[in-house]
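Lab channel / #folding
Pinned by the channel admin:
"Please post every new chain as: sequence first, then the structure tokens as a reply. Keep commentary short and put observations after the output so the thread stays searchable."

First post following the new format, from NK:
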Amino acid sequence: MTAVNGSQNTYIVTVNRAAPGVNNNLQSLTVSPGTLAPPFLATTTSYTVDVGTSVTSVTVTARAQDAGATVSINNQTTTSLSIPLGAAGTNTPIQVEVTAPNGSQKPYIVTVNRAAPGGNNNLQSLSVSPGSLAPGFNPSTRSYTVNVADTVERITVAAQAQDAGATVSIENQTTTSLSVQLEPAGNPTIVSIDVTAPNNNQKTYTVRVNRAAPIPPPTITTTSLPNGNVGIPYSQQLQATGGSGTLTWTIIAGSLPDGFSNISAGGLISGQPTVAGAPATFTVQVTDARQQSATRDFSIEIFNSP
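Reply from TO:
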């Protein structure tokens, strides 16, 4: 500075420019899904994360303490990155690097351990409808039988695996429920249920379905009926074998002699003849509970009493 009289005075200003920051610590670090072990601490640089077999990728998020620092994840300058994992049963290392404003770097390593495929090939439940398993279901029991009536043509087999990642197939069809056509009555049907664990270990359960032999229709064993006399009470019980359930008797053609009641449902022919004459002919039918039937022709001749 120069005064009016020409004298001078000099002033000096020194500008101190700050050195670049040296902070290369992380402020936070997370992996999703998953939990860091040990919990995050800026001075801890090595972590592990355990995830399930079904997890195929994770998202890593990292932030620096110094706003001027740079974060890179697997060599990509970013604070959040989705990273594909290796095959189930392997580990995937992930590097997170913080570069301070002065260029100094600090690496953090996260190792993600993806669980190996499970080996559980047990069933959780097994049922057959209609029918009941014998013995009762137990995951360690592989062989069962089921008895059904001869009229049952199909059954439904339902099976659930213990491991949600396992696969169930019934009769070589990937399903947990299947309607199965049975062999003809009197023949067994073998049903196979395969459980494949996530690690491909397989276990086979079998159900033997015993379909009862068919019940034959009824057969009328009475071959003939005796004749009767006017005024003398008449009573004859028709007989039959076979059939299912209660047998019901009817006359489907012709008629009984005069003075007779109609045949009873139980097959009793009775009455008191009133008129002699030519033989009365009629056809009897017996029907079982399944509507299977048999018929036979009969005749009764009424004579005058001696």
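NK: The domain at 123-211 is CATH 2.60.40 (Immunoglobulin-like).
TO: also worth noting, The CA atoms of residues 280 and 300 lie 5 Å apart.
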